[in-house]
Design brief:
The protein has helices spanning about 1-15, 50-55, 60-70, 70-95, 140-205, 210-245, 275-280, 285-305, 350-415, 420-455; strands at about 40-45, 100-110, 120-135, 270, 310-320, 330-340. Helices cover about 60% and strands about 10% of the residues. It is elongated. The chain is α+β, with helices and mostly antiparallel strands and about 475 residues long. It has a four-stranded antiparallel sheet with strand order 2-3-5-6. It has one domain (about 20-95, about 140-305, about 355-465): Up-down Bundle (Outer membrane efflux proteins (OEP)), CATH 1.20.1600. It is built from ten helices and six strands, in the order αβαααββααβααββαα. Helix 5 runs antiparallel to helix 10 (about 420-455). The two termini are about 65 Å apart.
Length: about 475
């Protein structure tokens, strides 16, 4: 009873005591605004807009939904969350008494000096319950529990980060696919035009109007475009396979929705919000800070290794000369006690363990600061892409319009006998190149929109919350 009373008193006195460094959020330099922030239009933060409102193509939405159900990385991330949560239970278990059912047998040859009895050989059998309980005087075990909790929270944020990345990756892959579809369509239309031109020149050659050089040039133009078509089809198949992989499918075709030119009118890009908000929104930043908190708790746990430990132990069971004596009326036995240990010499183990924990904490801080700067960089780059690509597209649309008109004039001039076919050839090449380049720019615009959405930490919303 006295021991039990002492135990209760110690538990009350030290249950709230946990040594270790007080946690402070690592310092970071947060810019007052994003670079190129003027490229956004409305006051609403883009990250707060659900992905199904940002990406309006119904086929793309179906692909995203399927990826959120089936993607390998997302399922693995969910399993890592379960693992981290289970580790909290492992750490908490050390705070509770540890009890085992034990059984033992021992055969002894006793000293004749100490045991003059003729029976120098003795047998001892025991069995019962052995219990030990480390009293967490300095919070060593509680700091380990705190570290496990922070690891679990970091794992959950990492899972949310996988969701965001997955939504953006599927969207980017889909827009790239639709861009390739448009480029293939442009090449196919151009091939049809050049085939017709080639056939026309062959007929004119037969009539003695067109020269062999003109026919050869028309044929070369036709084959040049013809060679581009299988290349586009190759790239399309590879892009479809990439999307299938994100969806955890075997390679195969992908259903299409709106063409990239029908999606060409980009929705107004909402504001990116304040840079300080990004630190509370990006999963990788949040997860990185949780890991700093975890490392901070481990430092406290290592500090407690230098202080005394108090263990309570007890045994309840029986002992006897024969196995049948263990549960006899007169062979019951029990032991209750405790011991305290103060580390004196462990070969420097505790010192090096503490230094290792400090180094891990410094690594976590540096990683957090790196993650923060990388987050600001991602947003700035995406905003720059959106702004500059809009300028590029505007200029290229004017170029395409002018090149189409120039190609039409060149053909009219040639048919009227005012110019050679070289002029037509040059105009057609410029037109085709301009149209192909514009298609690439349109695709890049939608990719940059997806990049901004990912950079701001948007895309994690569950579709059930839609109103």
């Amino acid at each position: 009873m006295r021991i039990a009373t002492v135990f209760l008193v110690l538990t009350v006195l030290f249950s709230g005591c946990a040594i270790g460094p007080r946690y402070h959020t690592p310092e970071t330099q947060v810019p007052s605004e994003y670079r190129e922030a003027e490229s956004v239009e409305s006051a609403e933060c883009m990250a707060d807009v659900p992905w199904w409102q940002v990406f309006g193509d119904s086929s793309l939405q179906s692909l995203i939904r399927e990826s959120l159900r089936s993607n390998f990385d997302l399922r693995a991330a969910a399993a890592r969350v379960d693992e981290a949560r289970a580790m909290i239970g492992v750490a908490r278990a050390d705070l509770l008494p540890q009890s085992d059912l034990v059984a033992g047998a021992r055969r002894d040859r006793n000293s004749k000096v100490l045991y003059p009895s003729p029976e120098r050989l003795t047998s001892t059998y025991s069995g019962g319950f052995n219990t030990s309980w480390e009293i967490d005087l300095w919070g060593r075990l509680r700091q380990q529990v705190r570290s496990a909790k922070m690891e679990a929270l970091a794992a959950e944020e990492s899972r949310r980060g996988v969701v965001i990345t997955l939504v953006a990756d599927v969207a980017q892959s889909y827009f790239t696919l639709r861009e390739l579809d448009l480029r293939l369509s442009i090449a196919t239309d151009t091939l049809a035009t050049r085939k017709a031109t080639y056939e026309l020149f062959r007929e004119r050659q037969k009539g003695g109007v067109a020269s062999d050089l003109e026919v050869a040039q028309a044929e070369a133009d036709m084959h040049e475009t013809e060679a581009a078509i299988p290349e586009f089809r190759r790239l399309i198949s590879i892009q479809e396979n990439r999307i299938c992989f994100l969806l955890a499918r075997n390679p195969g075709p992908i259903d299409r929705g709106l063409s990239i030119e029908n999606q060409a009118s980009l929705p107004p890009v909402p504001a990116a919000g304040l840079p300080s908000d990004l630190l509370r929104r990006r999963p990788d930043v949040i997860a990185s800070e949780y890991l700093v908190k975890s490392a901070n708790a481990i430092v406290g746990s290592r500090m407690a290794e230098f202080l005394p430990k108090l263990d309570l132990v007890n045994f309840i069971g029986g002992e006897g000369r024969r196995p049948s004596d263990i549960w006899g009326d007169k062979t019951d036995a029990w032991t209750i006690g405790g011991e305290t240990k103060l580390p004196l010499f462990h070969g420097g183990r505790n010192i090096f363990s503490y230094r290792s924990a400090q180094a891990q904490w410094r690594q976590a801080v540096e990683q957090y600061q790196k993650t923060v700067v990388n987050a600001f960089t991602d947003v700035a780059n995406a905003l720059t892409d959106i702004k500059r690509l809009a300028e590029v597209r505007a200029a290229q649309e004017l170029q395409v319009k002018s090149d189409r008109y120039a190609a039409k004039l060149a053909k009219t001039r040639y048919e009227g006998g005012y110019s050679s076919y070289l002029e037509v050839l040059d105009a057609e090449r410029r037109r085709y190149a301009a149209e192909d380049l514009l298609a690439k720019t349109i695709g890049n615009q939608f990719v940059s929109l997806s990049n901004l959405y990912r950079a701001l930490g948007g895309g994690w919303q569950a579709e059930e919350v839609r109103k």
